[in-house]
Amino acid sequence: MEKIHAVITGIGGYVPDYVLNNEELSRMVDTNDEWIMSRIGVKERRILNEEGLGTSYMARKAVRQLLERTGTDPQSVDAVICSTSTPDYHFPSTASIVVGKLGMKNAYAMDLQAACSGFLFAMDTASGLIESGRYKKIVVIGADKMSSVTDYTDRQTCPIFGDGAAAVLVEPTTEEYGWMDSHLRTDGLGLPFLCLKAGGSATPPSYFTLTHRMHYLHQEGRTVYKFAVTNMSDACALIAERNGLNKDNIAWVVPHQANVRIIQAVAQRLELPMEQVMLNITHFGNTSSATLPLALWEYESKLRKGDNLIFTAFGAGFTWGAAYMKWGYDGK
Length: 332
Ligand code: UT7
Fold this sequence. Notes:
alpha/beta, Peroxisomal Thiolase, Chain A, domain 1, 2 domains, five-stranded mixed β-sheet, four-stranded mixed β-sheet, 31% helix, globular, binds oxa(dethia)-CoA
């Protein structure tokens, strides 16, 4: 029997209209455009600031565009996997809200939480389901409303993050395209360095947790930075070596967008110029699960069938990894 590969056949995306730029941010905390651009590389980020709207709103917009662009009947979708760390609710899942609103009546839906590596992990999961032969159409979403967990009095974290969502359709092919290989890892030692301290079952909400601002993202930036550079670079090098990829045959690197200096280090390790690295951190900031699919969304027209892509990400946990995908269609 021919081997089934899982290939991306379309992309949809959505970012909120509101633009929070460095100038406005400098009026909220003691920071400035020069510091943020040189240390992180973010000029502006999008913020979902309408009351009552959560991550599922952006996810729904992205999936609706995906279904329209690919001419997909919502009822033909078999499964929806939503990668998010900022779900609308602890339960039910954000994915269940999306399928409910969009009439995806024949899909089972679930959220997958692997922080900023979530889209990579969700793609690997979806690919396994497609390769099993039991599923024909899976929607994989990366969506996060990071503004809901960002402390806008903390200058060390608030310049980094933004809101957004994007989704891809994953389908089977017997051609040599699609999700070819991955190297994904998790190490729980990262917990104290990057976490949301309260609101979960270990420390439920209380007056104490509210007073101590424990419902906002906590990050020890320097430690996370070191682990991110090392692990993303090593994972990319491993995936490249295992698949005979090098600077002459890699078309694009699709990295998580946490810090432009981390991205430059990854490109350097692969000996690739920044022109071959997808970037959206400058105008969207770190949208967590959404960084990778939003990059595909913006660069789609440049992609060609057969392009070799390396995806890489790093996030809380720690979680990290890299994957190799042979792109499956000419971008329009
Ligand atoms: O997406 C999940 C994974 N996350 C990551 O990969 C993030 C990894 N970490 C980073 O990207 C960086 O560590 C940060 C961008 C978070 C911070 O950059 P840094 O170069 O590590 O800065 P730092 O925290 O070491 O701070 C350097 C200085 C400090 O001042 P002193 O102690 O040297 O006087 C900070 O107080 O910069 C100061 N500082 C700021 N100054 C102006 C920190 N934040 C700001 C700010 N504006 N917003």
